[in-house]
Amino acid sequence: MPTIETEEHRSLRQAVSALGKRHGRAYDREQLWSEAAKLGYLGVNLPEAYGGGGGGIAELSIVLEELGAAGAPLLMMIVSPAICGTVIARFGTESQKRDWLPALADGTRTMAFGITEPDAGSNSHRISTTARRDGADWLLTGRKVFVSGVDIADATLVVGRTEDSRTGRLKPCLFIVPRDAPGFGRRHIEMELNAQEKQFELTLDDVRLPAEALVGDEDAGLLQLFAGLNPERIMTAAFAIGMGRYALSQAITYAKDRTVWNTPIGAHQAIAHPLAQAHIDLELARLMMQKAAYLYDEGDDVAAGEAANMAKYAAGEACVKAVDQAVHTLGGNGLTREFGIASLITAARVARIAPVSREMILNYVSHQTLGLPKSY
Ligand SMILES: Cc1cc2nc3c(=O)[nH]c(=O)nc-3n(C[C@H](O)[C@H](O)[C@H](O)COP(=O)(O)OP(=O)(O)OC[C@H]3O[C@@H](n4cnc5c(N)ncnc54)[C@H](O)[C@@H]3O)c2cc1C
């Protein structure tokens, strides 16, 4: 694994950063989405044969990190090209690939992803959204919660389980559910987040889907699901690192200028050192993210799983600390609407909770890496 970023990756970073800065914090999500797509950034990880850039999650994570660092993150990148695009590219039928991948890459269509359920939460083994056969069709019934961007997505990739595997270990199966499918309802959840994407509670009431809606094998087990969840974790790390960098850059600019004694506040070590620490933590998190992306793109799903969890953990923590320190650095202005930093406090917490919480990653590392016994 290269420890220094390649020339190609550096140029991609610079180009995306320039795009992000042109849009800035007051970005229009839709406009940026279509511009990024036209420049080939949204589908950079998707296969060339289906309109993508032929790269991997390493490249896609650079795109999201740089947009975030410019204050213009595109949350749906975590879902549409990273989870849904990857799963379809790896396990979809030829017609699903032709139908979806070019459209996800050129930004004309978007796909949301729904796994979280109100009664299962962090314990995905408890999900109860159930698919049963009806002739050649499937009928899908269940509830999902906190699913992002369902209103702007043409379809949602819903994780369910087949009827005969309702109990015991999860055998997930994935269905493409069009936004307007009869029986597919959504309720907007009001969040205390200053984000352009909304979250929804979903109800699936005997949603009739053709056989072609099933992505991959109904018996493939967790492998197919994690093919999408590992990119999701890596991309959430990119989202968090981008946001942390954005907050830090605002704080640095402010600290260089603001003078209340006879030197700028950035000269006081009580202000400078925590900013330096935040920078180091973000850099370290990025290294782990790059390792995870490298392993994933090399096809080592197992090693990528561990690294993706660690990267998401490190990035979430680094982001929360960077945002907290940025707000503090701005003093009263840290809480004004004009400077727009305080609203990042709740946004930063998302990376600690979703798509898998800090505690569940610590559980994973305790059990899988360290071999410690489980409490649950
Ligand atoms: C902004 C946002 C966007 C989201 N977008 C999506 C989306 O697009 N699609 C989707 O499917 N989901 C989405 N989610 C849902 C997200 O993945 C879940 O919120 C997350 O997985 C946690 O589940 P929960 O909220 O049910 O928390 P719970 O599982 O109820 O956990 C609550 C708390 O208990 C802790 N906890 C639980 N079990 C244990 C344990 N065994 N040991 C120690 N601590 C434990 C958790 O760490 C957490 O702190 C989104 C969430 C947010 C906030």
Automatic annotation (TrEMBL):
One of its GO terms (cellular component) is cytoplasm. Keywords: FAD, Flavoprotein, Oxidoreductase. GO terms for molecular function: acyl-CoA dehydrogenase activity; flavin adenine dinucleotide binding. Residues 112-207 form the Acyl-CoA oxidase/dehydrogenase middle domain. GO terms for biological process: fatty acid beta-oxidation using acyl-CoA dehydrogenase. Its cofactor is FAD. It holds the Pfam family Acyl-CoA_dh_1. Gene3D superfamilies: Acyl-CoA dehydrogenase/oxidase, N-terminal domain, Butyryl-CoA Dehydrogenase, subunit A, domain 2, Butyryl-CoA Dehydrogenase, subunit A, domain 3. Residues 221-363 form the Acyl-CoA dehydrogenase/oxidase C-terminal domain. Residues 6-107 form the Acyl-CoA dehydrogenase/oxidase N-terminal domain. Belongs to the acyl-CoA dehydrogenase family. This is Pimeloyl-CoA dehydrogenase, small subunit. It comes from Streptomyces sviceus (strain ATCC 29083 / DSM 924 / JCM 4929 / NBRC 13980 / NCIMB 11184 / NRRL 5439 / UC 5370).
